[in-house]
Amino acid sequence: MTDDCCQTRPSKMQKVNGDAPEEVKESHVAVDTSSAVSTQPSHGDNPALGGTQPFAASRYSDFLSNVSNFKIIESTLREGEQFANAFFDTETKIKIAKALDDFGVDCIELTSPAASEQSRKDCEAICKLGLKTKVITHIRCHMDDARIAVETGVDGVDVVMGTSKFLREYSHGKDMTYITKSAVEVIEFVKSKGIEIRFSTEDSFRSDLVDLLSIYQVVDKVGVNRVGIADTVGVANPRQVYDLVRTLRSVVGCDIECHFHNDTGCAIANAYTALEAGATHVDTSVLGIGERNGIPSLGGFIARMYAADREYVMNKYNLKALREVENLVADAVQVQIPFNNPVTGYCAFTHKAGIHAKAILANPSTYEILKPEDFGMSRYVSIGHRLTGWNAVKSRAQQLGLELTDDQIKAATNRIKVMADIKDQTMEDVDAVLHVFYRAIKNGQDISHDKVFDRLLEHYNATPDVPAIEAEPTA
Ligand SMILES: [Zn+2]
To answer: What sections of the sequence does the record tag as coiled-coil (predicted)?
Structure first.
């Protein structure tokens, strides 16, 4: 690995996945608000978590929608292998397959066994693991590939064929009649072996709609299990996705799988919209790795679906296993978890603004659509900065067992803000201010004078275990 490949690893981002890094822990309070919310209706005011808000997901009103009934085809071991940094040896592939199985994805998709001799051996090895998840492989729409695939022990085969004019002209050079004939031949062969089969077009959104619908109808009639739409180039937007999937839903009876690339940042939104329009299966990869900048990340997609139907997602998937599978894949392809990654990014559950902190301490749903504890994560409230608020500081004083009145807390908060105007304060700095306030008030010292406060703070920082009990001048 050269340094060029590691530009996504700034030094401050070490060990950011799963829990806050050390520098965050130093300046942020981990907040357990379970007691604070116990008196509240459980997320009753949170539309995404089953509340009564008018903009809640319309899962009961839309008969097409599969937002509450979808399957994940996890393609880290196929699409993910096309990521620039990816090289998975057999051992790593097995670890990833087991971690995805533990998370509970419905299918894992493997690189074509026709790609190389090692790919074929790895495919067989994963089929022998006895995973709960279905193991499928992804091949070209070609009898040679199909013959190799069905011998590996896979539960299913995903075939793909380019139908856009670009692919027909510059890639395989075949016309629609030839494509349709090959598809039917491969489908009938794979089905004759008792193995599940999907037929997908490639670059579907730049293919002719009549061509697309015609071939999907043909393969549906010969008994394909799923048809697939692939936004291979990442050109589609949610509205186009809705229109195409909905149209397709009206012409085929089989399942519909969707595969979206993230070139313009729409991959997760497109996947969600596809489900709303009647798609049944969505392709993901861990951290979204894949060709170019990849496809919907498993974690991001899960966060989206959790916000739509928490119960379905919680019952079906082992959300606490997400962090581990992300760490595993991040290590394998030598990238860091992005700071803003849904769920596991180091600031995903860190609250900073004073007004947010106050509400979070009272009821986290006020500013959280995802409950960190459902994912085995912690929430943090950042307090050592100029935007801090006295409610967050009060919460910290209570954690330290320091009894201070609200006015005293407000005075301490002002001190923290003055200091934070110069530089952000660590948790130790904040604690020192609170200890100084507590001791001074106990000893009857007037710390409204800067000099007195500064001297006491200096004394505390030098010898925190020695209480400053001597009378201090007040001017
Ligand atoms: Zn792809």
So the answer is: none
Residue 290 in domain:
yes
Q: Which two tokens stand for residue 79?
A: 């699409």
The boundaries of the domain holding residue 428 are: 350-462
Please check whether residues 324 and 408 belong to one and the same domain.
no
Going from the Cα of 283 to the center of ligand 1, the distance in angstroms, rounded, reads 9
Question: Which member of 356, 385, 449, 459 is catalytic?
Answer: 356
The pLDDT of residue 350 is: 85
- Six-digit token pair at 103? 């998370």
Is residue 356 annotated as a catalytic residue, yes or no?
A: yes
What's the number of domains the chain is made of? Answer: 2
Question: Does a structural domain hold residue 102?
Answer: yes
**What is the reported pLDDT for 347?**
87
Distance from Cα 232 to the centre of ligand 1, integer Å: 5
Using the mean position of ligand 1's atoms as its centre, give its distance from the Cα of residue 79 in Å.
6
Q: Is residue 379 part of a domain?
A: yes
Q: Is the domain of 357 the same as that of 312? A: no
d(CA 172, CA 195): 26
Asked if 132 and 267 sit in the same domain, the reply is yes
Residues 6+ apart with CB under 8 A from 142: 182, 186
Q: Tell me the CA distances in angstroms from 270 to 46, 198, 265, 277, 283, one per residue in order.
A: 24, 20, 9, 10, 11
Tokens 């279905």, residue?
Answer: 134
Q: What is the mean pLDDT of each run of 10 residues along the chain (475 residues)?
A: 33 37 60 46 41 47 90 98 94 98 98 97 98 97 96 96 75 80 95 97 92 94 97 97 97 98 98 98 98 97 97 97 96 94 90 78 84 91 88 88 93 93 90 92 88 91 80 49
Q: Is 258 helix (H, G, I), strand (E, B) or coil?
A: strand
292 CA to centre of ligand 1 in angstroms = 9
- What does the alpha-carbon distance between residue 104 and residue 100 come to, in Å, rounded to a whole number? 6
Residues with CB under 5 A from ligand 1 (ion): 79
Distance 178 CA to ligand 1 centre (A): 23
Give residue 121 CA to ligand 1 midpoint distance, Å.
Answer: 23
3-state percent breakdown (helix, strand, coil) of the chain, nearest 5: 50, 10, 40
Q: For residues 109 and 120, what is the distance between their CA atoms, to the nearest angstrom? A: 13
Task: Please tell me whether residues 290 and 408 are part of one structural domain.
Answer: no
pTM: 0.82
- Per DSSP, the three-state class of 30 is strand
Residue 312 lies in a domain: yes
Same domain? For 282 and 383 the reply is no
Choose one of 307, 333, 359: the last residue of a domain. Answer: 333
